[in-house]
Design a protein that fits this description.
The structure is a homotetramer of 238-residue chains.
Chain A: H1 6-34, H2 38-64, H3 70-78, H4 84-108, H5 124-147, H6 152-166, H7 175-181, H8 195-216, H9 224-232, H10 234-237
InterPro entries (chains A, B, C, D): Aquaporin-like (IPR023271), Aquaporin_transptr (IPR034294), MIP (IPR000425), MIP_CS (IPR022357)
GO molecular function (chains A, B, C, D): channel activity
Subcellular location (chains A, B, C, D): Membrane
């Protein structure tokens, strides 16, 4: 696979995150307008999000890696798969894309472009949900890279489909998407003041996954104690 | 892959578009009859449409390319992948197939064969939805062709599954299907007078995608300015 | 692929059809018990049926071809892919399996094992639905065989997922399954007196598909007239 | 594929079972909170479970085989694919993971960590459902191993998606998951007193599948009588 230049990689990250957020926010608005049953609305939010992830990761993955997510970029930086400066540029592109995606969705549904979310999403249960959700997401990506890279788009799409339902937070698992969702006062919104808790939990889940899966997925004859020590300090051990 | 003759290619385009439109219109009628919850009805319209697209593109793709969509045919004509005369014939076959598909669905549901839709679908938000929807559709096809052609049927099916929900227009993204849907006064209809707005938006989205993805998916060392200029005039640059 | 002996092939046809019918009938009972919304019930009937078809065709296809359907067996007999005597034995095994599947579902849901359906399914719109449904099913199988045999399980599962919704009859498309469904007075039942109309329509759709797709999928330089004549008499032409 | 050491294999079984049970229990709680329609709730429980199975088996399968299920481990022990001592250790890891998964879900949804289920699930219809469900599950795994090992994650995910609906018990098909579900008094719970009936039925279904599919999937020229005798005593015959 030929390498893509930085401009194209950053445009791919921004464009992919924009389409992802437009899907999350737009399908949330659509679902909320059409039904009074919240589980039906969540299905109408989940199925499009899972589907579009498969598509975006397949199409843009060869260009930029298709992170669309600062927590994923941090995981790859910990593993030294991306340089620090580029990782920072990725995060900026992702956040810019997320904001554009929210605006694009609002324009499609004839809503004010600029909004501030009022949906409360805070507390230990929500943060624990985000830790679990992002731990699983990064674990799935690392496992896919290890055993079946061609399946990663499908794995991520299916994982998020599940995580929307098995976490109390509907699994944001993505600080850039969370920022995009802070600027929509619709079904999928999150109050700006609740963003830091989510972001910290998501990054913690990503780091935990780098440690646990870094150890689990690489067979060796090291004694367990040393293996566990390395799991606690993954950036050195992998 | 051996080449198929023009007659078979045009029959494949007509037959595929007919089955696609029969699915869109038929599942809309079925869903609308069975439920009073509009989101459930849209799920009952979305899932069959996404599923049948995977099937039709897999089975008929090797015969005709499985465009089933004049906006897609225009995108390929811009890229010089199909001759102008054949592209025009494709569009005619697609429209004829769409009309036949609507009629076939009406016969299955014991409804008058000839109907005129009365559902209003107009205004900037709808047009912007169609631009986004078709931009994404053509981008997905170009990205699939570039990186994973075998995945295109699945990518298109999943993309449309998502786009039904993230656009306010439920993502027609297809002028031939829109014409077919103008002749059914059921769940999926569109007033004939609203067709031109949709068709212009869809073709605009397709052209935009040819430009943006033509630039994005092909790495090079060209300076950005020249690359962007080429993106604005894609038929020459790709 | 090694050949399987006739006993194993017939057991595979019976077992596969039994599990297919148990899924159709069982999920219909489950869905009907849990909701008053008929579209939700149909989703709860559709998704399991599509899913189990992918599974059964993948696992039993290498043993028997995984027809599970006399209309499909007739199509293969027309194409001389299966001997007449074996085709008849297949049909008997499929019908026996279908009856066992209905009984198994009744036992799972604590219902009387023997029942006679009272659901009326008759008239030209229903028959036309079954013609279209089976035409599409056989076309999908022939197209899959022609271009992507490994995808056939997925194609059939997705096609039936769509056809449940785009036909007014919910796409039986299978005389053996129809017979099994005549012996359950639940969501998915069909009056025994309505069976002949369905069976005739299904076989007609299958024969039509052998003709049309036999012509469409095989490129040649024959003049159109001769090609169309062969399409009308497909058993000789393919 | 390199071999993984016992510690990693057991951690993979525990972690995978924990994420599976967290999905089953968590999505059940989410669905139950959001809707009053039990079929919609079951869809919200089914889709995430099927999706997460595909993901977990893909990512952890190369480490441990991704049984996540003592009935599956027993089937492999009968076929001498896993040593007895390791099989016992697998079962313990699976049960420990299941209990952790239930606890993790309760923490995510801000519920008491320790609960005892009160949902009655007993009687011949339920046990017969579990026999059928586990027979099918093990049959699918054996068929996948025989003909298309790469498809096993998808096959298991789709099979369980179907089995949630075609069995009256919603297809536990897994004694470890059942134990985990005995400790949640939510949508997916099962009274502890009902566990033995489920476990016996599940193991019986698994043994039956080893016999039937052991015979069916391996072509030979043995006379039927001997083949059937071997099917009744599969551990010797395969």
């Amino acid at each position: 696979m030929e390498a893509f230049d930085p401009i194209r990689r950053l445009v791919a990250e921004a464009l992919g995150t924009a389409l992802l957020v437009a899907t999350v926010v737009g399908s949330g608005i659509m679902a909320d307008r059409l039904t009074g049953d919240d589980a039906v609305a969540l299905l109408g939010n989940t199925i499009p999000t899972g589907a579009v992830l498969v598509v975006l990761i397949t199409v843009l993955g060869p260009v930029s890696g298709a992170h669309f997510n600062p927590a994923v970029t941090i995981a790859f930086a910990l593993r030294r798969s991306i340089a620090r400066g580029m990782a920072a540029a990725y995060a900026i592109a992702q956040i810019a894309g997320a904001l554009a995606g929210t605006a694009a969705a609002h324009l499609m549904f004839d809503l004010p472009v600029l909004q501030i979310a009022q949906t409360v999403r805070t507390g230990p249960a929500q943060w624990w949900s985000e830790i679990v959700a992002t731990f699983g997401l990064v674990g799935v990506i690392l496992g896919g890279l290890r055993f079946n890279a061609a399946a990663i788009p499908t794995l991520v799409g299916l994982y998020i489909t599940a995580a929307y339902w098995f976490t109390a937070s509907t699994s944001f698992a993505n600080p850039a998407v969370a920022i995009g969702r802070a600027f929509t006062d619709t079904f999928s919104g999150i109050r700006p003041v609740d963003l830091p808790g989510f972001a910290v939990a998501e990054v913690a889940g990503a780091i935990l996954a780098v440690g646990v899966f870094g150890w689990l997925l690489h067979p060796s004859h090291k004694p367990l104690r040393r293996a566990l020590a390395e799991a606690a300090g993954p950036a050195q051990g992998t």
